[in-house]
Specification:
The protein is an alpha/beta fold. The chain folds into two domains: 2-179 and 385-412, Rossmann fold; 192-380, Rossmann fold (3-Layer(aba) Sandwich), CATH 3.40.50. Helix content is 36%, strand content 14%. It contains 14 helices and 14 strands. It has a six-stranded parallel sheet with strand order 5-3-1-6-7-8. A six-stranded parallel sheet has the order 11-10-9-12-13-14, sandwiched between helices. Helix 8 (217-224) crosses helix 12 and helix 11 (287-294) packs across helix 13 (366-380). The protein is globular. Its EC number is 2.4.-.-.
Length: 418
Amino acid sequence: MCILIVTHVVAKNDGQGRVNYEIARAALEAGHEVTLLASAADSALAAHPRARFVKIAPSKLPSRLVQYQLFAWRTAVWIAAHRDAFDVIHVNGFITWARAHVNAVHFVHDGWYRCGFYPFRARRGAYHAYQVLYTRLNAWCERWALRRAEAIVPVSAKVAQEVAALGIADARLHVIHNGVDFDEFAPGASERERFGLPRDPFMALFAGDLRMSRKNLDTVLRALRETPPHVHLAVAGILRNSPYPALAQSLGVADRVHFLDLVKDMPALMRSVDAFVFPSRYEPLGLVLLEAMAAALPVVTARTAGGAEMIEAGASRDDPHGTHDPHDAAPTEDAPHTGPAAGIVLDDPDDAAALATALVQLATDRVAARQMGEAARQRAATLGWPRMAERYLALYEEVRTPAPRAARAPHSIAAARP
């Protein structure tokens, strides 16, 4: 096949970029030809003899709203000139004004806007008004893009429900969870001293963007106040401009919260803690949750976080969300479930008391916590990057449109910069 992947970044150190990187790598290994239409791409991947990187230079105009729209327009112009060269065009949400065969959905702006935890209000000032405009415009563009794609790939059952709420038929939905490096995040010896963490306390880990209220560290800190002194929290994320160290101080838990700033060796950190806490107020599917599962950590999360379907009792090793093959249509709720819980799922991400109870439960019953961690790792075994890429390639075969023989030469395409 001749495959075109349209995304902003194709790289191993970027969430959505890693997904596209693994798909492209698997496609090249399978003998397909891949063109990457992006602003940045992994240099080794782009240098592959069957790969082509067509760079869309990032716009220097102000605001992401303008920058993303310009990227969408420029990629659409390029695709219109070269569409016949490709069997499959893969895009990611609303990223181009061009029609695609496969659209992978990593975030649903309409779902974020309507989830009940959206923090912005247009009347609260210019910044809030801009955020509302940005969200609503992207929601409209996403709906437009999804209705024009042949196959839609939500990255979790939660995302599939949000896409279906836009009026997309279930038959067009193919849930494929993102992957995880099962070997890199294998459990092992603790290295707490390396990270400056105390040796004895029960240590939960929170990892994410510390500038976003959506990630919900504030509730975790309030919950920590209701736990015994031997329960501590490690926090991994960029501290610059973060309000949470001051909040921890005001809540009287600063001595039990260990802010580590940006951590590059996340596998080693996860081997050094006892649990992972991820009560995001809105999350399509965080890769860090899958990494924690692979590291055999019991997970405390909330139903508002994509991936929660893999934590509760009932998700089996062969069926990560206990409902269907992730390559098949959208999930159903009445299929039989098997398998132990891989953690604890909260109904309300802002329920600090329930979160505190969950942390105390794990800290008190270490045997049960280890069993949850083992169940988490077993489920992560079904979510490796090769398996994810295999599912995408199988879907490509289903939707491919054979290009005219004379046009099937992506490597003759000039690396134009629209």
